[in-house]
Amino acid sequence: MLKIKYIGHSAFQFKDGQNDIIIDPFITGNPVAKTKVEEIKSKYIILTHGHSDHFGDTLSLVKQNDAEVIAINELANNLSARGIKAYNMNIGGAYHFPFGKVKFTIAHHSSADDQGMYLGNPAGVIVNIAGKNIYHCGDTGLFYDMKLIGEMQKIDVMIVPIGDYFTMGIDDAVKAVQFVNPKLAIPSHYNTYPIITQDGNEFKDKVNAIGIDCKIMNIDEEIQLM
Ligand code: NI
Ligand code: MN
């Protein structure tokens, strides 16, 4: 059994009854998030890249939960230098953690902190937990190698940015879903700020039209996969 909770923007929590992990925990300053940082119990934090709308509350959560961070080498090393336990993975590499397997994929984007310090390449991530493969695309433009990602493993859930401006917009995101061919697509990274306003239903209709299920998750909604 796997529970996926949408915190808002690009932040999702995965829970299998024993383990609790969070991706891109941007809560404080996130205009749409309702969850309180103090309520998050995640022991692992996966970061797709260093932008502040993804790095978010990482430092508070590390302190609060004695959490460990899984990220791309440069971002992880930056955290390690601050005394944080961080796994410095890189694109194409996978590793078995106590909760499951994590593999980083390419993403076409950038990665730096708000002061402009370079934090390595941005990434997407495939998390295998509770027998499910979840592909969180991170922030990215459309790329044809997504087809390869879908060919190499059956993706159960694809979390795909549709906001445009910083990432794919709806039509590119639909093409991305077609390339990956997941069982279920979940839109993310939209309607957080006016500049990334999108109609989730338009995305859903277009994904359904290519024969793939789509779930628009409300803030703090939790879905359960058997
Ligand atoms: Ni970004
Ligand atoms: Mn972003």
Observed structural traits:
Metallo-beta-lactamase, Chain A; 21% helix; 226 residues; seven-stranded mixed sheet; binds nickel (II) ion; alpha/beta; globular; binds manganese (II) ion
In short:
The protein is α/β, with parallel strands linked by helices and 226 residues long. The chain has helices spanning 52-55, 58-65, 73-80, 146-152, 170-180, 200-209, and strands at 2-8, 11-15, 20-23, 44-46, 68-72, 86-89, 94-97, 100-106, 123-129, 132-136, 157-161, 184-188, 213-214, 222-225. It binds nickel (II) ion and manganese (II) ion.
What does this structure look like?
It is built from six helices and 14 strands. The longest helix is centred in the C-terminal third of the chain and has 11 residues, at 170-180. It has a single domain (2-214), classed as 4-Layer Sandwich (Metallo-beta-lactamase, Chain A). The chain has a seven-stranded mixed β-sheet. A seven-stranded mixed β-sheet has the order 7-8-9-10-11-12-13, with helices on one face. The protein is of the alpha/beta class. The structure holds nickel (II) ion and manganese (II) ion. Manganese (II) ion is lined by residues 10, 51, 53-54, 139, 166, 189.
